[in-house]
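W.,

You were right to be curious about this one. When I first looked at the sequence I had no strong expectations either way, so I just let the prediction run and decided to look at it fresh. Below is the sequence, 169 residues in total, followed by the output.
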Amino acid sequence: MNKTLGFLISAAALLPAMPAAAQQPTPGTYAVRLLTPETALVAAQAALAQCRKAGFQVAVAVADRSGGLQVLLRDRFAGAHTVEAATRKAWSAASFRISTTALAAETQAGMPMSGIRALPEVAAFGGGLVIEAGGSTFGGIGVSGAPGGEADDACARAGLKAIAEAIEF
């Protein structure tokens, strides 16, 4: 590493963290709140634990508010399809800002939003929930592998419950 770059990195480490009040967006910008990877992992682990307790082998995915994958956990005997299904459920919940169970109802054939099902990443079946608190959307959590959307939803809710205190403000 060259001396100038090393100095800049060292100097930056000495700067104090910016106080919260100074992090206000400037005109023409906005601020967003994001889950830390550690918080996303806690949600995924809690959802996996809930499903295990119920005897289900599942995959759990947590997506950020833009639908980008943050965490993916797959239990030992979860089916191969569960990875993609959980990821798409998390993406769909984050992207559309509604549960995938509600998305399934809203996109039935003949409904005004039925065309959404044609998008390649959409999962319009139970198991995906929005992660939100205090008026902010943080992302989505998707569970796949339990016997049916209601059971997947129950495990996802356990993930939300595990992080509720950490994301409330």
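Here's what jumped out at me. The radius of gyration is 19 Å. And, maybe more interesting for your project: The chain has one domain: 34-167.

Coffee later to discuss?

I.
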